[in-house]
Write a structure and sequence with these properties.
Elements lengths: L17 H8 L15 E4 L9 H9 L4 E2 H8 L3 H13 L3 E4 L13 H13 L1
Antiparallel strand pairs: 1-2, 1-3
C-alpha cells in the first residue's frame, strides 16, 4: 500500500497516460455518434486485417458474439469514453454492428411486491 505523496505503481500491462490515450484515439476526445452506451451490444462483422490498429483488432477478436460496451472497455483496460471512440471508428467502416438490448414491452407486468419479498427472504436464508 502506498503512503500519501508516494506514487502508485501502474498496473501491469496498462498504460493510461494521457499521451497513450491521445495516440489511441488520434487526438479525439469524443465521438460524433451517440450509438454507444454502456449496455449497447457489439458484434464483429469481419475479422481483423493486417496493419489494423491493435485496439481495433482486439475489439474485433472479442466480438465474435454480442458483448456489451462496458465489457469491451474492461477487457481492453481502457476508459469507456476511449472505447466508444474506437467502436465508432469500427461502426463507421462497417466492421461491427451495434444494437441496444431489447427492453421489456410495456405490457409486461412486474411480479407482485409480496412475491419479491419472499424471494429476498429466501435468498437471505441461504
Amino acid at each position: 500500500m502506498s503512503t500519501p505523496g508516494q506514487a502508485r505503481a501502474p498496473r501491469p500491462g496498462r498504460d493510461d497516460s494521457p499521451d497513450r490515450l491521445y495516440t489511441v484515439t488520434g487526438g479525439r476526445s469524443r465521438t460524433h455518434s451517440d450509438a454507444f452506451d454502456l449496455v449497447t451490444l457489439v458484434v464483429a462483422e469481419c475479422d481483423p486485417t493486417p496493419g489494423m490498429q491493435s485496439e481495433h483488432a482486439a475489439i474485433l477478436r472479442m466480438c465474435d458474439y454480442p458483448i456489451a460496451v462496458v465489457e469491451i472497455a474492461a477487457e481492453l483496460g481502457l476508459p469507456v469514453g476511449i472505447t466508444r471512440i474506437l467502436l465508432a471508428d469500427l461502426l463507421d467502416t462497417g466492421r461491427i454492428s451495434a444494437r441496444h438490448p431489447r427492453s421489456a414491452p410495456e405490457s409486461a407486468q412486474l411480479p407482485e411486491p409480496e412475491l419479491l419479498e419472499q424471494v429476498l427472504v429466501g435468498l437471505r436464508n441461504l
